[in-house]
Write a structure and sequence with these properties.
Blueprint lengths: L6 H13 L13 H12 L1 H4 L5 E7 L9 H13 L5 E8 L2 E7 L1 H8 L2 H9 L8 H14 L7 H4 L4 H7 L7 E4 L3 E3 L3 H22 L4 H5 L12
Antiparallel strand pairs: 1-3, 2-3, 4-5
Helix pairs in contact: 2-4, 2-10
């Protein structure tokens, strides 16, 4: 949903990224390579681990980071151990020499989002199978990422963006664009802005925990249900 945004939305997205806590500011705290990767995943999936967002897209770039490590290579070495006992699941949507585009999600929460009647109806109109079968729905999403040049815009629904905003971006409603945060907002912005604030609060909270020397591997094993109320 981000790759083919009009110029104004691209500018808004860049502004948002500049205002977010950067993982590179935290790498010095984690000399162990497994902890280094775990801290990156914990921050990039903070909203998912908090239970307030069904999924996040995470780019694992196959290049040396300023900290001296290659996250793509570390993922191949440590992914099974890091996700063992974690509520997070990972799905590779695109694989290139430059790295992998991953979807990190919690199955129960994602399925609950996609089964909401209006969302399920919209996805069915876009050619997806009945959302009751999450495996088939994700397989369809994965196939679209691998066969289409642009990012499928309905990915916004998997990421927890409001249906009105995803439909507006796709040209499926006549609501005007009224703002932009992590995504373009259509119609009444109140719900979308509040949701964006919740997502940002989760990322700030995770950054604080990592800064306070929390164990990043343990953070990946956080039960979302134990933290949902913190951000409501």
């Amino acid at each position: 949903m981000l790759s083919s945004m009009p110029h104004a939305s691209q500018q808004c997205s860049r502004t948002h990224r500049r205002s977010r806590t950067s993982w590179l500011d935290l790498t010095w705290k984690f000399p162990d390579e497994r902890d280094c990767l775990a801290s990156f995943l914990a921050l990039e999936a903070a909203e998912v681990l908090a239970g307030v967002k069904p999924a996040n897209l995470v780019q694992l770039r196959n290049r040396r980071q300023p900290c001296g490590r290659n996250l793509h290579q570390l993922w191949r070495l440590h992914s099974n151990a890091l996700l063992a006992g974690s509520p997070l699941k990972a799905l590779s949507l695109r694989q290139k020499e430059t790295g992998d585009l991953m979807l990190f999600y919690t199955p129960e929460i994602l399925q609950s989002y996609l089964q909401q009647p209006k969302t399920a109806k919209f996805l069915k109109q876009q050619g997806y199978p009945t959302p009751g079968n999450l495996r088939k729905t994700l397989a369809e999403l994965q196939e679209r990422f691998q066969t289409e040049t642009d990012m499928p815009h309905e990915i916004g629904l998997f990421l927890g963006y409001p249906l009105k905003d995803v439909a507006g971006f796709m040209g499926c409603s006549d609501k005007p664009c009224t703002g932009c945060r992590q995504w373009r907002i259509y119609g009444d912005p109140a719900q979308s802005l509040a949701l964006s604030d919740r997502y940002a609060a989760c990322r700030r909270g995770m950054a604080h925990r990592l800064t306070d020397s929390a164990n990043p591997v343990a953070l990946l094993r956080t039960d979302p249900k134990a933290h949902q109320s913190i951000y409501i």
